[in-house]
């Protein structure tokens, strides 16, 4: 079974990992674009048990960018309205590819694991922008219990169908959503609407943490990375 190519960071302790964070890049980027963040988090003493897996998306044409081929998890036709004209087939294909990677962590066949298994409850799926959309979709629909979702400057796709797609395990999911209120690409409104939907329509309520970063554009900042670290410390703490 072929799987996406990945970049793996940590654990920095050199010991066998006991938890995994998947970190998915945004449109036009690669795993290398988030490797510095993964290394920063890996060096944090409270996260030295975590393995960071950064997958690379396929390269495919993107309608929004005049049909040019680039790293992309799915086709984007417009950012004017996140609920319109979605590439459902592309979204679900990438979701399925990430599920393959999660299953490989759980059965110990993931890159560099050498048979060491990670409990599914200690897997977090996260990503930025387009990668965050796939992380939301994966976390809510994967047919096993995962620990959480880290959603950065992003939105929930396929909202009209998510109730039909959601997993029986979804109710125990914890979510961190960070968004800058000066984001000109994925507007802050889209993140806010997503969080309201996940809290109220999907019933996750206080399991969702929403952090606003004043003046932050379509990017990340030191404060957000610190908040991600705190979320991971709660959801996948070091084993006793």
Could you walk me through the main structural features you see in this protein, from its secondary elements to its overall organization?
The chain has 6 helices and 9 strands; from the N terminus they run ββαβββαβαβαβαβα. It is α/β, with parallel strands linked by helices and 240 residues long. The protein has one domain: Rossmann fold (3-Layer(aba) Sandwich), CATH 3.40.50.1820. Strands 1-3-2-6-7-8-9 form a 7-stranded mixed sheet, sandwiched between helices. A two-stranded antiparallel sheet has the order 4-5. β2 (19-24), α1 and β3 form a beta-alpha-beta unit. α2 (88-107) packs across α3. The longest helix has 20 residues, at 88-107. The model has no long low-confidence stretch (mean pLDDT 94).
Derived structural class: alpha/beta
Q: Strand order across the biggest sheet?
A: 1-3-2-6-7-8-9
Shape: globular
**Tally of strands:** 9
Name of the top-level CATH class? Alpha Beta
Organism: Violaceomyces palustris
Protein name: Acyl-protein thioesterase 1
What layout of secondary structure does this protein have?
Elements: E1 6-9, E2 19-24, H1 35-42, E3 50-55, E4 59-62, E5 68-71, H2 88-107, E6 123-128, H3 130-141, E7 148-152, H4 162-165, E8 174-180, H5 188-201, E9 208-213, H6 222-235
